[in-house]
Amino acid sequence: MSRTLSTALVTGASAGLGRELVRQLVRDRGMTVYATARRLDRLDELMAEMPEGKVKVLDGDISDPGFRARLWGWAEAESGGIDLLVNNAGVGHYADFGEQDPAEVRRIVEVNVMAVFDLTQRAIQAMRGRGRGEIVEVSSVLGTFGIPYSAAYVASKHAVDGLVKSVRHELRGSGVRLWALRPGRFASEFRTSSLGGRGSDHAKPGEPAEAIAQGLIRGLGGRRAFVTPTLQAALTVAVPHWLPGPFEAFMAWLGPKRFMREVGGAISSKSSAA
Ligand SMILES: NC(=O)c1ccc[n+]([C@@H]2O[C@H](COP(=O)([O-])OP(=O)(O)OC[C@H]3O[C@@H](n4cnc5c(N)ncnc54)[C@H](OP(=O)(O)O)[C@@H]3O)[C@@H](O)[C@H]2O)c1
Fold first, then answer.
1. Residue 223: its pLDDT value, please?
2. Which residue among 190, 193, 236, 237 is best mutated to probe the pocket of ligand 1, counting the most ligand atoms within 8 A of its Cβ?
3. DSSP letter string over 127-153?
4. How far, in Å, from the CA of 26 to the mean position of ligand 1?
5. For a tag site, which of 155, 166, 210, 213 has the least CB within 10 Å?
6. Cα–Cα distance, 185 to 236 (Å, whole number)
7. Tell me: domain 2-272, CATH 3.40.50.720, correct?
8. Is 144 in the pocket of ligand 1 (CB under 6 A)?
9. Atom number of ligand 1 nearest to Cα 183
């Protein structure tokens, strides 16, 4: 299936994984990519880096349903039909869930869940009509287990995984494939752009975004519903799945304080006393 992919819509293309993915889809796959994010200057830089006409950009806030409708309409009309949708835009946060501002929770759900569901529906309608296409949701290893102080984010990735588990059955025989990528931690702007306070600068940066983009591209045209792009991510998912008891004991041994050090000053001392 991957050989027939020539046009892609990639969200969250101004930084991290999305930006790297646009580069690799153009350079390694010769695809024309429709790229979106809020920061137009970043998108313009990316467009200028690539061969002329291979990257087209539209800036906007993906949490806005009106923008999503415009985005999908633009990408379909300009391309003559999008073959590959990558729902990559995402936002993290560091917060004690009990204390978290409901507006922040809503924002995470809008970007990480509602935007993904909405664009996935639009893509299914268009791609099913054409009898072909591929939709990739960028989930996380945190779609499979939880950690403290990122509850709404973890829940949002579980929601995306749930969507894939169900809808893939509805798409059987349609020529449209829906799957999710489950990366572990990788180097990007994710921790510094997280809502509710930046993460610690001492946190390990993780794997290079290039390796995660390569893993996503390797997954194109395959049959699996969930793809872990690196060995490290595969092990991170496998341990809680196959060894739930020892994993639970390990989390209890680590305790929430270990995670607090990681998220820097983003969690209030009131929460830490609990
Ligand atoms: N980094 C990790 O360790 C890690 C691990 C597992 C999974 N993931 C997932 O991987 C995906 C990409 O993350 P990343 O690490 O590459 O993050 P990043 O470097 O922070 O990039 C996030 C991208 O999403 C866009 N975005 C955020 N909010 C948006 C909004 N309201 N409207 C439009 N675009 C928006 C940002 O663009 P603008 O700010 O310009 O709008 C940016 O291009 C996310 O879904 C994340 O959950 C990340």
1. 94
2. 190
3. HHHHT-EEEEEE--GGGTS--TT-HHH
4. 20
5. 166
6. 10
7. yes
8. no
9. 6
Per residue in 160-199, pLDDT tens? Answer: 999 999 999 999 999 999 999 999 999 998 877 776 655 5
Q: How far is the CA of 273 from the centre of ligand 1 (A)?
A: 31
87 lines ligand 1 (CB under 6 A): no
Largest Cα–Cα separation, the chain = 57
| 193 Cβ below 6 A of ligand 1 | yes
For residue 46, give the amino acid letter. L
In this predicted model, what pLDDT tens digit does every residue of 31-46 receive, in sequence order? 999 999 999 999 999 9
Q: Map tokens 């209890």 to a residue.
A: 252
Tell me the CA–centroid distance for residue 78 and ligand 1, in Å.
Answer: 25
pLDDT at 269: 45
Distance CA 123, CA 126 (A): 5
The C-alpha torsion from 112 through 118 and 208 to 262, rounded to 10°, is: 0
Within 8 A by CB and 6+ apart from 47, the residues are 35, 55, 56, 57
In the predicted model, what is the mean pLDDT of the chain? 91
Q: Which atom of ligand 1 is nearest to the CA of 189?
A: 19
Cα distances (angstroms) measured from residue 234 to each of 145, 194, 268: 13, 24, 33
Q: Which atom of ligand 1 is nearest to the CA of 39?
A: 40
> Other CB atoms closer than 10 Å to residue 114's CB: what's the count?
17
Active site residue 153: yes
